[in-house]
Amino acid sequence: MRILGVDPGLTRCGLGVVESGAARRVTMLDVRVATSPSTLETPARLAQIADVVEAMLDEHRPEAVAMERIFARSDVSTIMGTAQVSGVIMLAAERRGLPLSLYTPSEVKAAVTGDGRAGKEQVTFMVTRLLGLAQAPRPADAADALAIAIAHAWRGGAAPVGSAATTPAQRRWTEAEKAARRRG
Amino acid sequence: MRILGVDPGLTRCGLGVVESGAARRVTMLDVRVATSPSTLETPARLAQIADVVEAMLDEHRPEAVAMERIFARSDVSTIMGTAQVSGVIMLAAERRGLPLSLYTPSEVKAAVTGDGRAGKEQVTFMVTRLLGLAQAPRPADAADALAIAIAHAWRGGAAPVGSAATTPAQRRWTEAEKAARRRG
């Protein structure tokens, strides 16, 4: 299953395309951070972000979109722009007939690190390991978008851990999990 | 000048097209309230609203869009949906090359009634008179959208009042203003 993960934002919008296969294997197809300068008016900023999102949807043709859920009680200085971006992305998904799922930051952290209160560095570390990347995705918005896509790929199931891990991907998960625990 | 006024909302989105002419004359070309049921998921609701907005933009070809400004400290139960709708409408305007202006409720009330703290009934009353309508636009979202369009048509100038009123539209304004004052 191919998934576009989105960490919505008006200044920086993280976008990651992940393909999930058998045995919870996940690979990265693309990662970008769409940006817009605060010197522009909001409509022009939304269009800049929407252009990148729509280009990725049309290029990679994901089967689903997963996005971070926004709360009305979040940081009020950025909440309006984030909500507006999320609306634009929801419409783009809907008009392509793609199901869109929302995940809280805690759900995403729990899915990729096993700890709903994990820090940004731990999320980035696990995303890098799980996707078998040579370098950590930067900035954090990019790693977050990939984490959201992985969370969606894995929803509804427990992560394979311990001696049951038999595939290379599962071993990588287990090792990374242990390493993360040592660091955490 | 032809203006689309928007009172954004996910459950009800007021939309009014107003044409402004010489001597502050304003006429109504169209008014609608786009709705979406709360039983649908947000992406589908946004698409229902966006379809109506885009149809009106394409049918009436306004030269500008005027929308109510949303504040992060508004009612939290509806603020997210309202912000998402506003983002979708901003993108639709931007992609058609239309300038979009935002007005606070106080600015709109002051423009059409002379009182920034006027009630909904007074706004509806003045909108009905100013546009020379036989019936008051209902629901309030429809009247609000028309009031926002009128506010944009008149921005940057004082309303003609008193003995200086010479055109039929100006006389109508003056009479309506007096009537509103008597009622207020």
From TrEMBL, chains A, B:
Pfam family name, one: RuvC
UniProt binding sites for Mg(2+) 2: E68
Compositionally biased residues, Basic and acidic residues: 172-184
EC number: 3.1.21.10
Compartments, as annotated in UniProt: Cytoplasm
Keyword terms: Cytoplasm, DNA damage, DNA recombination, DNA repair, DNA-binding, Endonuclease, Hydrolase, Magnesium, Metal-binding, Nuclease
Main location per the UniProt record: cytoplasm
Catalyses which reaction(s): Endonucleolytic cleavage at a junction such as a reciprocal single-stranded crossover between two homologous DNA duplexes (Holliday junction)
Residues that, per the record, bind Mg(2+) 1: D7, D141
UniProt cofactor note: Binds 2 Mg(2+) ion per subunit.
Active site: D7, E68, D141
SUPFAM superfamilies assigned: Ribonuclease H-like (SSF53098)
EC category: hydrolase
Family per record: Belongs to the RuvC family.
Free-text function comment from the UniProt entry: The RuvA-RuvB-RuvC complex processes Holliday junction (HJ) DNA during genetic recombination and DNA repair. Endonuclease that resolves HJ intermediates. Cleaves cruciform DNA by making single-stranded nicks across the HJ at symmetrical positions within the homologous arms, yielding a 5'-phosphate and a 3'-hydroxyl group; requires a central core of homology in the junction. The consensus cleavage sequence is 5'-(A/T)TT(C/G)-3'. Cleavage occurs on the 3'-side of the TT dinucleotide at the point of strand exchange.
PANTHER family assigned to the protein according to its UniProt record, in alphabetical order: CROSSOVER JUNCTION ENDODEOXYRIBONUCLEASE RUVC
Assembly mode: Homodimer which binds Holliday junction (HJ) DNA. The HJ becomes 2-fold symmetrical on binding to RuvC with unstacked arms; it has a different conformation from HJ DNA in complex with RuvA. In the full resolvosome a probable DNA-RuvA(4)-RuvB(12)-RuvC(2) complex forms which resolves the HJ.
UniProt name for this protein: Crossover junction endodeoxyribonuclease RuvC
Native species: Demequina sediminis
